[in-house]
Amino acid sequence: MRSVGIYTLGCKVNTYESEYIENELVRAGYEIKDFDDICDVYIINTCTVTNNSDSKSRKMIRQAIKRNPQACVVAMGCFIAVNKDYHEDGLDIIIGNKDKVRIVNLLDEYFKNKKTIVDLYSNRLSDFEDMRIKEFPGRTRAFVKIQDGCDNFCSYCIIPFARGKCRSKKEDEVIEEVTDLVNNGYKEVVLTGIHTGSYGNDLETNFADLLKKLVKIKGLERLRISSIEVTELNEEVLDVIRKSNVIVNHLHIPIQAGSDEILKAMNRKYDLDFYKQKIAEIRSIRPDIAISTDIIVGFPGESEELFEKSIETCKNIAFSKLHVFPYSERRGTKASTMKNKIPGNIKKDRARRLIKVSEELEREYMKKFINKGLTVLIEEYKDGFSFGHTSNFIHVKIPGKLEHNSMINVKINKVEYPYAIGEVI
What's the whole-number average pLDDT of the chain? Predict the structure, then answer.
């Protein structure tokens, strides 16, 4: 029996794909071991969203080659898709974001011939690769990849080149996968994709129609959307949110910048007025909803005044959490050719300041629920406490051992950041 260690960088889509790969390898008779162990096969599922992602991808590939020079080392994913000429001595299988479903066959071919395999395609021409997972060992929250690719071409982003055009999993296959997961005991399912809200643009359906069918699945208690663009929260999608409590009380809606000047330079498809009006509309439907966001600091041309405007925007919108990213130049994007680049030390300082704002916003949001009851999905027990998340994604810490994967009604007593402290009702 050959052993394999898998290392995953980047987004939830990569996490889903690595889980699928692991399941396929187990079915084929491989033994799954820790990536740090001596293995016969190492698989690195790479990311290229930032310079740090590139560096980490290269680092993990080199570590695997050094750890066991006799192992078959596989590099796949976005870093490889964008850097097609990349190679390291000792790297044996090189694929992008296509043919991950063929991993068992590719390994069989390598061990038969002991020849390097390079299997790369045009990212914009790739079809949707269907994967299906029935269980996520050790997890209470299951993920379903419903979509791949992006057609937005934001000026800072390399992902449309790494992941290709928007393409979707067939609707009946999504419904079957979610149904299987629910039947296997998962109470919460997360819909994920590179541009999730564009689901169905290549099919005779759309995201709202998919949501309407999914919320009717018997036994599904929570349906979470990993991320959605504000432009895709149309009346049909909002109507499903209005009518179904299965959709959780949390949306992650990237804003990316808090000024119209930088949004325009980023080639985002909205201005601040549109974004704020949509948030107001959402809160008219769900007053207590958590709205988290992504925001980039230090984009070319972002003056101190424009950065301060971003801080003001985040406070005024009152996000529940900010995911803060210093701008990372990506070769091949429009932003990489822009002037007025921001020095690294200033980007780092702005990220630090905005992360502090995020902590303040998180505390304020959680304090709203003191002395109120919320339902917590229990995910972990550690050091005398049970931990889990509410529908609106508050991380709750509860004294005592509670049943794993159970839904528990809890009263929030206080906030001890990053947790809300609760007691069982």
Answer: 96
Neighbours of 401 (CB within 10 A): 12
pLDDT at 122 > cutoff 80? no
Neighbouring residues of 205: CB distance < 8 A, sequence distance ≥ 6: 171, 199
**DSSP, residue by residue, 8-49:** E-SSHHHHHHHHHHHHHHHHTTPEEE-TTS--SEEEEEE--S
Contacts of residues 414-422 at CB distance under 8 Å and 24 or more positions apart, as own/partner, are 414/370, 415/363, 415/366, 415/367, 415/370, 417/359, 417/362, 417/363, 417/366, 418/362, 419/387, 419/395, 420/366, 420/369, 420/394, 420/395, 420/396, 421/396, 421/397, 422/374, 422/376, 422/396, 422/397, 422/398
pTM greater than the 0.85 cutoff:
yes
Any residues with CB less than 8 A from the CB of 124 and at least 6 apart, and which?
160, 161, 164, 165
Q: Which domains does the chain show, CATH number per domain?
A: 3-121 (3.40.50.12160), 127-248 (3.30.750.210), 251-362 (3.30.750.200), 373-424 (2.40.50.140)
pLDDT, mean of residues 235-247: 98
Checking if the pLDDT of 127 tops 90, the result is: no
CB neighbours of residue 203 within 10 Å = 15
| Side chain identity, residue 367 | K
- Structure-token match 């325009």, residue found: 264
Task: Pull the structure tokens for residue 213.
Answer: 């069918």
Q: 235-274: b or e for each residue (b if 16 or more CB lie within 10 Å)? A: eebbebbeeeebbbbbbbbbbbbbbbebbebbebebebee
pLDDT digits (tens, 9 = 90+) for 156-179: 999 999 999 999 999 999 999 999
> Using an 8 Å Cβ cutoff, are 17 and 145 in contact?
yes
Closest residue by Cα to residue 394 from 369, 413, 423, 358: 369
Q: Give the three-class secondary structure for 133.
A: coil
CA distance 263 to 257: 6
Q: Is the pLDDT assigned to residue 322 strictly greater than 90?
A: yes
